[in-house]
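Example 3.2
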Amino acid sequence: STKDIRLKFIKEKSDRIGISFSGSQKLKKLPLSIAEIILGKIVKNGFRLTYFLAPFDYFHEIQENQRFLNKKNVEIWRGSFENYFEEFAKLQGYVGMDSAGGHMASMFDIPAMIFFGTQKSDYCKPVSMTNLFIVETEIELFCRPCDGVNCVNPQVQKCLYDISKREIEKKCDEFIQAVS
């Protein structure tokens, strides 16, 4: 059960925020321009960052994104699935795409800021979270939800690029307040 998993992995919390800017499909990849806003605010507030690298990570595979993470002194975590639970349970908070990380944050009751692009949060948001900060476009798009593989919108990833900078900053501030 979820309670058993929580008990098994209860550890002292750290000052680390876990991040993962990729999901299981190539369109579940956070644009670098959005990642820059988020990481700038989180680092400024004194948190250490750990990027949870997935076997197929569409964000991290891009050289420019790797340089950006290095410049921000982001630790890259690689490990087994079992160790993933252990590391995840120690986080102070989590920021990522609508993927497994959000559901793990829910399981461990870790504040999370989750970006929804290809899917709508109404369909697949993590359940029973007290500190869930959903970030998604408010514009109704004909192509959303989609399969996450082939973007049919004339502007690729419009579902993510249409999220306003003001909305991202607002949600980021709320998230930082929850993890502080």
